[in-house]
Structures are given as structure tokens and as C-alpha cells.
Amino acid sequence: MQFLELKNFLDSKVEQYNQPNFIANDPVCIPHLFEKKQDIEISGFFAAVLAWGQRKTIINKCRELLNRMDNAPHDFVLNHSDDDLKRLLNFKHRTFNDTDLLYFISFFKQHYKNFESLEQAFIPQQDIYRTEYLDISSTERNIEVSSEVCYTADLHFSIEQALNHFRSYFFSLEDFPHRTRKHISSPQQKSTCKRLNMFLRWMVRTDNKGVDFGIWNTLKSKDLICPCDVHVDRVGRLLGLINRKQTDWLTAVELTTHLRAFDPLDPVKYDFALFGLGVEKEF
């Protein structure tokens, strides 16, 4: 296909698949169960991390997991007791088990004690410094010294840097299970980071179609990398959007670079088209 012909074709497929009827049979239906921002983030993160295998099974396992957390994931991670954690034991999906799950809960608890949104976990901190301030009572003239950790975020970072930072930050708690590292990928490992890129698409992209949430503001749609799963990879190669022999991080970057030629402000909207074409076996 010529450039304009291919663009028009993919644009039409975006319109076809980027619709509310896409939600029900896709893991994105899991965060759509919630309205609270933090519940959307946590349930969406689990849905993305567990997204391998048949979509029906993924959705069922995510629903099971949320039921174990009383369908209130943000409240659960912040306020659970040791007895509450027992409800998570024996959860399993593929190679993800309760050891991994308990560490995820520990990470979320630590993060949400300090930050309002999970977006901060993907923002590389350029500088961490401690500020002290004086609160002087006008009546007793007592001096109370407090301190807080402040962050200066470098807003000129790539999604590659964001994902590398996230993995490092995610495993910054003491005594994390070594086995759990395989569930959080990064470009540094040469992974396509399909699941995390999908999660970022859900959280960052905003349009009037109702599939993606657009609840994050620091990361921008124009910088996202297209999730490169088996369907997207296959269709991308058939359409000449991927030339790289292997499938790794640079493959996802190559694909996204080609997609930016069609829409530089929102290249990953074409994930709908490529995935839809692949899963529906239109090719």
C-alpha cells in the first residue's frame, strides 16, 4: 500500500475497533469496573501484568483477584491486615503466583502512602532532596521542625527511561522475591514491554471513544510506545511497518516510529487497528 492508502486504511480500523464495544472482551474491561482513580490504576496494572493467554481467562482471573480484595483495591493495599492477606494465598495465573502478588501489594502500599497516583512511579526523579521548614507558634513561640521529601521531576524523558526507572523503583523494597522480577519488564532487558506499554496507553491516551482513560497528565500520548504483542507484530510485518528480524524493544520503537508518520500526536491509537486486524484474523 502507498502511504496515504495505508493511513486511510488504518484510520478506518481505528474507528472500527476504538469503540465501547471493544471493552467487554478485552482486559481493559477490568479497570472500567471502577471510578476512583487509584482503583483504576491498581486494577488496570494487574490486568495488564496478567494479560497473557486467552482474554476470557485473563478477565476471569482478574475478577477473582479483585474479589479477594473486596473489589476495593486501593483501600485494600493501604489498609489490609495480615489476616486480609491470607485471602490472597493460592492465587495463580500462569507463572504469576501468591508470592508475586504479596510483593505487588507491598509495593502498592508503600507507593500510595507517599503518592496520590501511580503515574509518579513512572517519572524518573532527577533530584531527591530534603527540605526543612519552621512552624513557629505565635502564642507559645515554640519551634516545631518537620521535614518532607520533595522531588524534582525531569519532564524531558523518554518512555524508555520511564520504564527503566519504573522497574528499578518497583523492586526498591528490601527482600523482594527474585522470581517476581520476570513479571516486570524493561527496555534495559531488551523486552518489548508489551504489558506495561498497554497499561500506559490505558492511563495516558484520551479521546472521546471511552476505551482508554486519559487520567494521567505528565506522560503524553505522543511519547507512548505501541504495545507489540503477537497480533500487532504479525500485522505490522505484513503491512511493512516492522522490518527488524527479532521482536524486542527496538522492534516496538521501529513500529511506533512508522506509526508517528500517520499521527505524530497519537501514534499508539493504531494499536486498536493492528490488534483488531490480528485477533479478528482479517489478514
Brief descriptors of the model:
single chain; 283 residues; mainly alpha; globular
Quick overview:
The chain has 283 residues and is mainly alpha-helical. Helices cover 45% and strands 8% of the residues. A hairpin with a 6-residue loop joins strand 1 and strand 2.
Describe the structure in your own words.
The protein has helices at 3-17, 37-49, 55-68, 73-79, 82-85, 98-114, 159-170, 194-204, 230-238, 249-262, 270-279; strands at 125-136, 143-153. Helix 4 crosses helix 6 (98-114). It has one domain (3-123, 157-280). The protein is built from eleven helices and two strands. The protein is globular. It has a two-stranded antiparallel ribbon with strand order 1-2. A hairpin with a 6-residue loop joins strand 1 (125-136) and strand 2. The model is unreliable at 127-154 (pLDDT under 50).
**Quick one: how many beta strands?**
2
Please state how the strands of the largest beta sheet are arranged side by side. 1-2
How much beta, percentage-wise?
Answer: 5-15%
Q: Rounded to an integer, what's the Rg over CA atoms?
A: 21 Å
Parts with pLDDT < 50 across at least 5 consecutive residues: 127-154
Taken in chain order, the helices and strands follow as HHHHHHEEHHHHH
Distance between the termini: 14 Å
- In helices, the fraction of residues equals 40-55%
Q: Characterize the biggest β-sheet.
A: 2 strands, antiparallel
Tell me the structural class: mainly alpha
How many H/I helical runs? 11
Total number of distinct structural domains: 1
Pfam family, one: DUF2400
Protein name: TIGR02757 family protein
